[in-house]
């Protein structure tokens, strides 16, 4: 099927089947930017629970730029991949300082902003401004692999090169770059899914090489699996007379600046383990961080050795929402019956 026909079918399908997502109300550039960053490596249903709250707290790019890093990461707490929040704030500062608070339209200018790469630049340029900018995410790479029966594995450089080339051809043939790019992403999310794609309702099936060959489930080729790491981490719950909980600020790369409960021996977090005198086991829970499957064991500390260091702070659990923290901290406190 010719590329202009594929583009036209995608745009038409999107106009009929697009979901009423909040960032599609006016396509304001800042709101589009925030949505794209949140959606990286995070499921739509999770993002929808955070998006409006984040924007109520930081309604404009200027508000985000003026906010402290702690305020931004606190609002992001639970979404994971906290580097995204830090880079979004740094990008907002960049926009205020270099572009007078106006998010630029061109891909080149957008890519010059801290934290914005090729995909995010293309998404903002095409969705917010209607520019002919291609984008490739996991959904679009999967669609292209099936449309053209590309044998390269998922996420491989060969597949991504081919996907970007086809995306450029499609965007050049589109009438509405906004509808085309969103249509491809929507098809990947709702129809051309990783497993059990609903080819019967796909508007592109007659132009799909994998569908014609009866090999849809074979594309894209699977990538090499990253081994899952099983970990066990003890967490120590120390509560003072006022009901405040002892917490420690992380300085490592993975969750820098986040407040955690003091921990025992682990390679996940930096800093020396808390030296504990007497502790009572409260229970365990499971949690996943990237490729790590962690069993956290929570201990109530009844006697501890003196804690020193500026990285420690006493936190009122009622104020936890204002403190940057990973979601497993709240799980641990709930296990202990704190902050219910």
Summary keywords:
single chain, 340 residues, alpha+beta, Endonuclease III, domain 1, Nucleoside Triphosphate Pyrophosphohydrolase, 2 domains, 3-stranded mixed beta sheet, 6 strands
Description:
This protein has 340 residues and is of the alpha+beta class. It folds into two domains: 3-218, Orthogonal Bundle (Endonuclease III, domain 1); 229-335, Alpha-Beta Complex (Nucleoside Triphosphate Pyrophosphohydrolase). Helix content is 42%, strand content 14%. It is built from 13 helices and six strands. It has helices at residues 3-17, 29-39, 44-57, 61-66, 69-76, 83-99, 107-111, 118-129, 138-147, 157-173, 177-190, 209-212, 327-335; strands spanning 229-237, 245-249, 259-260, 276-289, 292-304, 312-315. It has a three-stranded mixed sheet with strand order 1-5-4, covered by helices on one side. A three-stranded antiparallel sheet has the order 3-2-6, with no helix packed on it. Helix 1 crosses helix 10, helix 2 crosses helix 3 (44-57) and helix 9 (138-147) crosses helix 11.
Q: Largest beta sheet, briefly?
A: 3 strands, mixed
Coarse shape? globular
Please, what is the average pLDDT?
A: 92
Which consecutive residue ranges, at least 5 long each, have pLDDT under 50?
none
Estimated share of beta-strand residues: 5-15%
Summarize the amount of helix as a percent range: 40-55%
Rg (CA only): 23 Å
**CATH homolog superfamily of the largest domain:** Hypothetical protein, domain 2
CATH-scheme architecture of the largest domain: Orthogonal Bundle
């Amino acid at each position: 099927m010719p590329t202009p026909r594929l583009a036209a079918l995608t745009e038409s399908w999107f106009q009929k089947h697009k979901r009423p997502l909040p960032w599609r109300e006016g396509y304001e550039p800042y709101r589009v930017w925030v949505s794209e960053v949140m959606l990286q490596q995070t499921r739509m249903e999770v993002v929808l629970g955070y998006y409006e709250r984040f924007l109520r707290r930081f309604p404009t790019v200027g508000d985000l730029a003026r906010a402290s890093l702690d305020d931004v990461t606190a609002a992001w707490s639970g979404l994971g991949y906290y580097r995204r929040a830090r880079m979004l704030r740094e990008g907002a500062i960049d926009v205020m300082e270099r572009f007078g608070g106006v998010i630029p339209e061109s891909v080149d200018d957008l890519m010059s902003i801290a934290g914005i790469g090729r995909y995010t630049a293309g998404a903002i340029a095409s969705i917010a401004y209607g520019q002919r900018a291609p984008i490739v995410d996991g959904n679009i790479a999967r669609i292209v692999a099936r449309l053209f029966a590309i044998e390269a594995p998922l996420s491989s450089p060969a597949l991504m090169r081919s996907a970007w080339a086809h995306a450029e051809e499609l965007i050049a043939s589109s009438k509405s770059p906004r509808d085309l790019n969103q249509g491809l992403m929507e098809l990947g999310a709702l129809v051309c899914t990783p497993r059990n794609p609903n080819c019967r309702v796909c508007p592109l099936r007659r132009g799909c090489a994998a569908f014609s060959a009866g090999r849809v489930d074979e594309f894209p080729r699977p990538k090499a699996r990253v081994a899952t790491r099983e970990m066990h981490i003890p967490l120590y719950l120390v509560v003072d007379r006022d009901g405040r909980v002892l917490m420690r600020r992380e300085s490592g790369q993975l969750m820098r600046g986040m407040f955690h409960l003091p921990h025992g021996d682990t390679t996940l977090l930096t800093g020396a383990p808390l030296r504990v005198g007497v502790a009572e086991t409260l229970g365990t829970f499971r949690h996943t961080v990237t490729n790590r499957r962690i069993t956290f064991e929570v201990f109530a500390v009844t006697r501890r050795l003196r804690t020193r260091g500026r990285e420690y702070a006493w936190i009122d659990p009622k104020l936890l929402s204002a403190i940057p923290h990973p979601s497993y901290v709240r799980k641990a406190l709930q296990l202990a019956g704190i902050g219910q």
